[in-house]
Design goal:
7 strands, four-stranded mixed beta sheet, about 120 residues, mainly beta, Immunoglobulin-like
């Protein structure tokens, strides 16, 4: 199962980590076609269920929508997420909410360079 950000455009803020993967936001709301893979396998090894997962490019100052929607990600499970939101950003901030209400935030994740992101306890 893959989730895609394709429906919305985000606002600009901070640049990328790698020179070849710098933020290249569009002007006028156009889509960026840079050919970079932004698919990331999210693995839950936290010991508890992930209730909500937010991934927002570093150029926006909000968490956008919950990527899981009506779904959850139980411990030991994984899900493929396509972080291509059309802005050209590779760096994303993640916010993870667990079923018990606790949260973890991780910043500046280069989704163009990683293939897997594992949530540990």
């Amino acid at each position: 199962m893959a989730f895609q950000f394709g429906r919305f455009m985000a606002v600009a803020l901070v640049g990328g980590l790698l020179a070849g993967c710098e933020a290249t936001p569009t002007t006028g709301g156009g889509m960026v076609s840079d050919g970079l893979n932004r698919n990331v396998l999210i693995q839950n090894r936290s010991g508890t269920t992930i209730y909500r997962f937010y991934g927002s490019n570093v150029g926006t100052n909000s968490w956008e929508e919950d990527i899981l929607g009506a779904n959850v990600l139980p411990n030991g499970q994984s899900i493929m997420i396509d972080f291509d939101d059309g802005t050209g950003y590779c760096d994303f901030d993640f916010k993870i909410e667990f079923i018990d209400g606790s949260t973890v935030e991780d910043y500046g994740i280069d989704v163009c360079a990683i293939g897997t992101y594992t949530v540990y306890p």
